[in-house]
């Protein structure tokens, strides 16, 4: 046993030594040589072992308890596990590595994975909320911080970013992604991957990222989690795949596949998607981890007879690692020995896994992420400051009439009311990693921190959300009917100059398995809102939620509405920064807010249809009982100042595929406060070989403007922005007219057009 390890060590020393001399330490060639050298030493059993991932179900710093844990510990010792997830702390991850390094024949280090979705200890806004900042630098920074805090706790691989396009507010996981637009989601994907992985995975303060879920998971039919996805090839290529292509091009280390089936094929067993497109056409060299048990779930899908059959389908389709499914460890060896699976497929998977491990520097030092002293060097206070800044930037001002906001110094009596007003847990959101329960700054605390002694702040809860016990896996019961707290709330509202009403969703109301048919304000919240409004019209409604909500009554009646998502650790301070004008809101919606749940799935980049409108009768594409447009459209958000857009100017009205056009627009801050505008560029391909969306985001710029100041914003249109997957199954542009639109949201736009020759 020892001979092999010495051999391996000798091999690395000589390769690393040589590499240092020639300064090609992390060159592709060098990594490939090392990968092949290790692979050549491995038995089939050891190779399959690399393709197995376990969740840490016991305390690794103590003896394993129970048969299953003992079995798993033995497998680690034999080098038959490639990765663990949910093992936390430098001590526990060191113990896990030690079991492998000190006992197994080859000593191939483990990757330690965890769902670090929006921060590790310091919690940032949920991804949907953070995307509303449109601030890619900020998003990269929060991922960087999450990586550092993960490393401090022994974690070296995150299952993030989730880049599923989601257009359905009923789907609980909409909060985990970047919303409905492929262009914006692609940009966020790249920023996040850069934040997690840095420029070099070998830097021990970076972690491996995962683009998930490949693919289609966000389009679950009827918004019901895990449900079937019906998607045509054209839509797949034009809407779902672009963020993954961007992630692959950005060098994401791993991709996770998905629970759903698409057009009859489970994503986990989808050879065309995984082998042909991702690993073939895109030439991506990372590895695919299954979603939790998604290989074995192919039996439930009715796509595999049993575990062995599921393993066979998955490996042939290109799924490289089995997360907690037990399919690979129990069946793959046999399948190879029986000649059902070519060992080359196993070699390909293992090569990919080893490649990532080499790039992470795990072979040079398997304990590099298990350093108990590293945590002491982490500046958690500074991280909180960044969290506050990013949370402020993520807030979207939906409505502001009567100039209620920012709250004026003349306001001396503020009633803070609502089930979420003093809730220190909800802002932490779901998928909270090691964010502590009840550790957020509540809205009430934030307001109290912000006001001086001369402002009287009263508080009444009014009602409960009625979610029952909070936890990741507990089912929710949204059944609150208790209005006994209303009287106190109404009394306090009556006495106040202004009411800040905090309504929305519980921390665990969005996330996995949290689909809903009703996306209104749960429980008695609507009733509370209407009762408060009866006694005091100066209501600022602050929403904390992870999905677009149906808030038509509020939108019509309440003068000011602030969308504050689930903003994380510094939530209350960030909201107060916006309420009192310390931060002038600049967020824009990454997702459409519906007028009614019946509009879902709702998204701005729709097709025109053959009957977009008809002034004379009802026979066109619309609803008879509601408008078809969004209540608040994609890209929408107000500021305390106003921005005026001048006419757009195109450098030419004609473009060739090799050429480009500059689109320039003057944007003026026409109000009295300094502010930031997200200037958005949209295009429409007027006639093509397939129908095209009426509008598609193709660029955006964040512009800071002083009162009265004008800046010219320039976008460059190049051929890649005009390309799409066309009727001939080619990614290309087609000649013809393109409409150019620029504005501060997807509805209010300046237009011009040009011709692609
Ligand atoms: C989720 C994944 C997650 C995995 C590991 C699954 O249920 O769908 O997104 O990464 O669990 O926790």
Explained architecture:
It is a single chain. This protein has 757 residues and is an alpha/beta fold. Helices cover 31% and strands 17% of the residues. It folds into three domains: 46-376, Alpha-Beta Barrel (TIM Barrel); 394-599, Glycoside hydrolase family 3 C-terminal domain (Rossmann fold, 3-Layer(aba) Sandwich); 643-756, Immunoglobulin-like, CATH 2.60.40. α2 (28-41) crosses α14 and α16 (443-450) packs across α20. The chain starts with a helix and ends with a strand. Residues 13-26 have low confidence and may be disordered. Beta-D-glucopyranose (BGC) is lined by residues 115, 159, 212, 291-292, 512. Beta-D-glucopyranose (BGC) binds next to loops.
Q: Which key features would you list for this structure?
A:
single chain; 757 residues; alpha/beta; TIM Barrel; Rossmann fold; Immunoglobulin-like; 3 domains; six-stranded mixed β-sheet; five-stranded parallel β-sheet; 27 strands; 17% strand; globular; binds beta-D-glucopyranose
Condensed summary:
The chain is of the alpha/beta class and 757 residues long. 31% of the residues lie in helices and 17% in strands.
